[in-house]
Amino acid sequence: MTTSQYDRKRLSEVRAAQAHKEEIQQAMAIRTVDDHATDSKDRATLIAMLGLDTQGPLVQASHVGTLD
Fold it and tell me: How does pLDDT run across 7-35, given as a tens digit for each residue?
């Protein structure tokens, strides 16, 4: 394996690891929003305001109900 091939492989691995870390951060942020949102409208507003992706593979977003 040449140095250039090694560099490309290493860069690919680093990018994949970073993407995975970002997915985990998104999932944790969405769980935090779910814990603090008062209703589904509040949740949607917070998600949009924070620019979170609710379609990620690690996200199991649950819509919160009302606090009645």
Answer: 999 999 999 999 999 999 999 999 999 99
Strands in 1-68 per DSSP E: none
21 phi/psi in degrees, rounded to 5 = -60, -40
Q: Position 12: which residue type?
A: S
What whole-number distance in Å separates Cα of residue 64 and Cα of residue 8?
A: 44
Cβ proximity of 30 and 59 under 8 Å: yes
State the Rg of the chain over Cα.
17
Give the C-alpha separation, 68 to 61, whole Å. Answer: 21
Q: Other CB atoms closer than 10 Å to residue 47's CB: what's the count? A: 18
